[in-house]
Design a protein that fits this description.
The chain is built from 22 helices and 16 strands. By secondary structure, it is an alpha/beta fold. The protein folds into three domains: 136 residues, no CATH class; 246 residues, Rossmann fold (3-Layer(aba) Sandwich), CATH 3.40.50; 192 residues, Magnesium chelatase subunit I, C-Terminal domain (Helicase, Ruva Protein, domain 3). The strands form three sheets. It has a twelve-stranded mixed β-sheet with strand order 8-9-7-10-11-6-12-15-16-3-13-14, with helices on both faces. The protein is elongated and about 150 Å long. The structure holds adenosine-5'-triphosphate and magnesium ion (MG). Magnesium ion (MG) binds next to α6.
């Protein structure tokens, strides 16, 4: 039955198509004939004189009469006179024959050329019908984003403004739009870091300042120059000396560091009271120790984590934090100390340098004459421990840029590859919105948008992505990620043609109807994103019109239909300048890096809690208030790492 239906459907539609094609064919044939005749007639009337036309008419008449009666008389009009000839005489008169040949050869030429013209016209008509028909097959873009070639995107960018010298795989972004941030997103191993390396090459060539978060040391390896650049990583030999007191001028600065070290987790499954309390205790304690000549992180940690609460209470006497460690709320104090213990344990990794020449991120950022780079590195195996400290450093740098004077010519790049490997940076969300005025250019690299949501919450993640104007999307293997990317790339408003065929037993019922419909289609579908080859990405450079030209309607029109393109990230060989990660010297007594790491891990797992309680005599007598700091020259403070043997140092690094 279904075969019979298919047979009928196929036959009916074929016959219908043949009938319709036949109609068009005859229509074109008639058009050809009509054009041939009209062209020939008009041309003959113009080209052949009236006398010649008259002669040809008489000649043709004589030919006709000659068939039946050669002596029939024909009248030839020439020069106003009428001559009478027999048909036979005229047809054999030499001058008449010559004249007839001349005129006929002229007419033959006209007919031949008219024929060629009418054939050409008919073919042109057939081709134009095909083109018109094809147009009905295609959908028409009304507005929105569409996928085009790199050349089209470059042309579009150049047509509405100046192209920047910063390029992503040869496609320039808009001049100055690096301050509107660049998002790089895609699954692992797709070439995100390679795309960032391309950017770093250009940032270096420009001489811009940069803060680079380098989780695995892969950027440090190629770009770190130990003569000029700064590296922060307590487990790295090249770490520049730093401590919290060099960064903080007043209570607000300590509060900021406290907020970065102890972020409020997204999701709200932790009581914010304990985190707020821990932040206050940390901030006030650090502020109190500011004027202590022998202040050290170790001493601060001893107060906060291991000393008797009475010692801490004495340190915080007469401050807003005193009630938080009051003997009346022992349980609350314990909860706050628990938060402090878990969030601050990594501070123990920082060497307590006594040198005066400590590095300050704020000072470095505020010095516009410096264009060296700050590398904040980590190591996968120790990343979880270092994460709060690294996040704090980045937060300080971001906040420092936002404290500068506004300057449209300044550029401070923040390369945040694998942003989601850091914890929530409290100042980062503000930075995405505001840092452009101060010259900050953020380049977040993400493997997965949903990880960002986990850390910054749904709205936070949305606003971060929303504030990145240039976007690079690599392959996303999952349906959710690819759908999200496809939505972020944008969609096109299309006018789509729909063709319907109807048929019936009577030919009157046969017909084709064509209708148009406005639909929205993604510029790049989720399937296309899922199937992007390795090292290929969709680049979205959002249009940006100069404010001075914003009233130009023609320019605005150009952005109504905006192209995005597919690019290939070429892998470039770069020289290795330095090791990505150099183990701290105090830990270098072991033979090989692998051996050391194994050793650290064994120490880490075997560390017992009772080992890390400092003896009470390691603590100083607490000061009464900030302005009455004792000169503690002969006090007993915990010894610095520098003075202990290597084995002890290794042990301490992993004690907490
Ligand atoms: N165009 C390319 N052609 C060939 N190999 C490439 C290309 N781009 C990058 N690679 C190589 O592919 C590997 C992965 O690239 P890359 O580190 O840039 O990926 P990624 O997206 O950053 O991955 P992850 O999310 O794991 O960090 C690297 O070894 C890199 O050298
Ligand atoms: Mg990478």
């Amino acid at each position: 039955m279904s075969n019979l239906k298919s047979f009928t459907r196929g036959g009916q539609t074929l016959l219908h198509n043949v009938r319709m094609a036949e109609q068009i064919f005859y229509w074109i044939l008639w058009l050809g004939i009509f054009s041939f005749l009209s062209i020939s007639i008009v041309w003959i009337l113009i080209q052949i004189t009236a006398e010649d036309r008259n002669f040809i008419f008489t000649w043709c008449l004589a030919k006709f009469f000659n068939i039946f009666n050669p002596n029939a008389i024909v009248n030839l009009k020439s020069h106003g006179e009428i001559y009478r000839f027999t048909a036979h005489y005229l047809l054999n008169y030499p001058n008449a024959i010559r004249n007839a040949h001349r005129i006929f050869s002229e007419v033959d030429g006209i007919l031949f050329i008219s024929f060629i013209i009418s054939i050409t016209l008919s073919c042109a008509m057939a081709i134009s019908l095909c083109i018109k028909g094809k147009r009905f097959e295609k959908s028409k873009l009304i507005s929105g984003r569409y996928l085009a070639s790199k050349r089209v995107v470059i042309k579009a960018i150049k047509s509405i403004g100046k192209a920047s010298d910063i390029k992503i795989s040869d496609v320039p972004i808009f001049k100055g739009s690096e301050r509107n941030h660049i998002l790089i997103n895609g699954t692992t191993g797709m070439g995100k870091s390679e795309a960032i390396r391309q950017l770093l090459d250009q940032i270096k060539a420009r001489g811009d300042k940069a803060v680079i978060y380098d989780k695995n040391g892969s950027f440090t390896e190629h770009y770190y120059n130990k003569e000029e650049d700064i590296l922060l990583n307590p487990l790295d030999e090249r770490c520049t000396p730093w401590n919290i007191w060099t960064e903080c001028q007043d209570a607000a600065d300590f509060d900021q560091i406290a907020a970065s070290l102890m972020p409020m987790p997204a999701g709200g499954n932790v009581d914010p009271h304990w985190i707020d309390g821990a932040r206050t205790v940390f901030s006030v304690s650090a502020l109190r120790m500011r004027k202590d000549k022998n202040k050290s992180l170790k001493k601060l940690l001893a107060y906060l984590l291991t000393a008797e609460t009475t010692q801490l209470r004495a340190l915080l006497k007469n401050t807003e934090a005193e009630t938080l460690v009051s003997e009346k709320i022992i349980k609350s104090t314990l909860s706050i100390k628990t938060v402090l213990a878990t969030k601050l344990k990594m501070l123990k990794h920082i060497k307590d340098n006594k040198t005066e020449d400590l590095f300050s991120i704020r000072d470095w950022i505020s010095d516009d004459t410096k264009n060296n780079w700050l590398f904040i590195t980590s190591k996968s195996s120790k990343h979880e421990t270092l994460k709060p400290l690294i996040s704090t450093w980045i937060d300080i740098a971001v906040n420092a840029v936002m404290s500068l004077e506004e300057n449209p010519d300044r550029r401070v790049w923040f390369i945040l590859d694998e942003l989601t490997s850091l914890h929530r940076l409290p100042y980062l969300m503000d930075a995405f919105a505001e840092i452009r005025k101060f010259g900050g250019c953020l380049v977040p690299g993400l493997q997965n948008y949903f990880q960002l949501q986990d850390i910054y919450g749904q709205n936070g993640a949305k606003s971060i992505v929303d504030l990145c104007n240039t976007r690079l999307f690599f392959r996303a293997p999952s349906a959710d990620s690819s759908k999200w990317m496809s939505r972020e790339i944008g969609q096109a408003d299309m006018l789509e043609m729909r063709e319907g065929v109807s048929y019936g037993a009577n030919t009157i019922r046969d017909g084709v109807n064509i209708s148009t419909q406005e639909v929205k289609r993604p510029a790049v579908s989720e399937t296309e994103i899922m199937n992007l080859p390795n090292f290929n990405a969709i680049l979205v450079v959002s249009p940006s019109i100069d404010a001075k030209k914003s009233s130009n309607e023609k320019l605005k029109d150009k952005t109504i239909k905006w192209p995005v393109c597919k690019i290939n990230i070429a892998c470039k060989k770069r020289e290795t300048k330095a090791k990505g990660y150099e183990i701290a010297q105090s830990l270098s007594s072991k033979d090989s890096l692998d051996g050391l790491i194994q050793y650290f891990e064994s120490v880490e797992t075997s560390a017992q809690p009772e080992n890390f309680t400092p003896s009470p005599d390691e603590l100083i007598e607490p000061v009464q208030n900030e302005f009455e700091v004792k000169e503690e020259s002969d006090e007993q403070v915990p010894e610095s790492h520098d003075n202990q043997d290597d084995a002890m140092n290794i042990k301490e690094v992993f004690e907490l």
